[in-house]
Amino acid sequence: MNHEILKANISDIPDLCQMMKDFYAIDLYPFDEKTTTDNFVRFINNHHYGECFKIVFEQQIAGYIILAKYFSFEFGGEILFLDELFVKPEFQGKSLGKKALEFVKNYSIENSFKIVLLEIENHNEKAKKLYEHYGFQNHKRSLMILKN
């Protein structure tokens, strides 16, 4: 096996921040390094928020997964939100996205989450096809946000 998915730790934060910066640049999302670093420290140190994992391929960090936990009465209990899944461009085409989704599915089952939710950019057909292949489907509702 030339890949593994491991819990991220504090020493991984510089690599995680760089990958997130690259990921956000794809769709021109704002990125603040200090805020992101502080958020990673908070998230990694407080497992009640969820878990951050690094995708390692041939001893190199190739991507990351962020899984956030929350409770939903509608869905019958604790659910898992696949907040982010990113594989560096130079590691794409090596089935790491597929391996990451298999990992997420197994993690959700092993930890008794009722469902896994995710959001996707409407233009990202490649990711949409990958998610659909693993059983994800469009929900009948749209996502809305209120910024403070």
UniProtKB/TrEMBL annotation:
InterPro entries with a match to the protein in the record: Acyl_CoA_acyltransferase, Diverse_Substrate_AcTransf, GNAT_dom
Keywords: Acyltransferase, Transferase
Listed Pfam families: Acetyltransf_1 (PF00583)
Top-level taxon in the UniProt lineage: Bacteria
Domain spans labelled N-acetyltransferase: 8-148
The keyword Acyltransferase is annotated on this UniProt entry: yes
PANTHER family, A to Z: DIAMINE N-ACETYLTRANSFERASE, GH14572P-RELATED
Full protein name: Acetyltransferase (GNAT) family protein
